[in-house]
Amino acid sequence: MNLLDGTGPVMNDQDQMLKTAQAEFAAATTPADLENAKARFLGKSGLVTELLKGMAALPVEQKKTRGAEINVLKAGIEAALTARRQALADAELALQLKAEALDVSLPGRQRGSGGLHPITRAMARIEAIFGSMGFDVADGPEIENDWFNFTALNTPADHPARSMHDTFYVENGHVLRTHTSPMQIRYAVQHVKRHAGLIAAGQAMPEIRVIAPGRTYRVDSDATHSPMFHQVEGLWVGTNISFKDLKSVYVNFLQQFFETTEMEIRFRPSYFPFTEPSAEIDMMFATGPLKGRWLEVSGAGQVHPQVIRNMGLDPETYIGFAFGSGIDRLAMLRYGVSDLRQFFDGDLRFLAQFQ
Ligand code: PHE
């Protein structure tokens, strides 16, 4: 008698039927197969349903025990079905996870993080220090004309700074600025314009107190000179500004820049056409590898009366000082770099050390 074809009398061995159902469910490998198998047992004309229908013919006294037996069978088949449904769903999920697997153990591709160039860092440091002393920060053109680069700075036509040997001339007599000093004139003229009302009324204008860092150019190239280099100009002009102010500002700056007071600083007489008197500022560390060597760090001086005039001011009323320092030199000393050209070679092995 075939249990499953529904032709013969229904087998009433419940254990056997449960085993068969479990085997059929186990054989179903897709949800559709499983639902078909379920229909054969629990469907409208499924085997369990047929058993229940068959009860109608039983005498009353047998109905109770028979009903209980069939319910146990039905519960067993339903439990097997649920378990198989869950197993198929689990298998499907496992397959999907495997197909969409992401290998998190593979090292990621790093995005290189850039950093600031040591000269940029030195400039930021200089700006912060002078900023804390009340200095404005100004920026100006690298291609200058004769007036701002030379003439307004009292530099005569026969001055060696104008020589073809150390200056990059471009068209129409323009030059790549040989120093940041043209910014003295550019900034002062703007300042005077801004306060023209006060000046016309015979009142004192607010003091000029500014630094102007930036690129400068000269035909020069060795371990301590690069054709492109950086300077920072400083200018403080008022009615009562003296060399004593220059000294206190500059000493304060050097001490903060190098984070030490263990140094000597001297002002050595010198000459610049746009300052009178003029000085070179030298420093000597009292400790460290550079101990005991005088190092030249800046040109400086009291702004020449003719330059004050070229700013649009009366040298009988206004007086002040200016300085121009090599930023690359200061950065070399601060970071212990022996060849200036390394700053501009673009070698990442060198530059990465400053990050
Ligand atoms: N401009 C001068 C130089 O480049 C430096 C300097 C600036 C000197 C301001 C005096 C005052 O050498």
Give me some keywords for this one.
alpha+beta, BirA Bifunctional Protein, domain 2, rod-shaped, binds phenylalanine
Rounded average pLDDT: 92
Helix amount:
40-55%
What is the rounded Rg? 46 Å
Question: At the fourth CATH level, what is the homologous superfamily of the largest domain?
Answer: Bira Bifunctional Protein, Domain 2
CATH topology of the largest domain: BirA Bifunctional Protein, domain 2
Query: Which CATH-level-2 architecture of the largest domain?
Result: 2-Layer Sandwich
The coarse overall form would be rod-shaped
Strand order of the largest sheet: 1-4-5-9-8-7-6
The rounded distance between the terminal residues' Cα atoms is: 87 Å
Structural class: alpha+beta
Number of strands: 9
Low-confidence stretches: 6-11
> How many helices in DSSP terms?
12
The level 1 CATH classification of the largest domain is: Alpha Beta
Domain count: the total is 2
Ligand catalogue: phenylalanine
Query: In percent, how much strand structure appears in the residues?
Result: 15-25%
The run of helices and strands is: HHHHHEEHEHHEEHEEEHEHH
The main β sheet shows up as: 7 strands, mixed
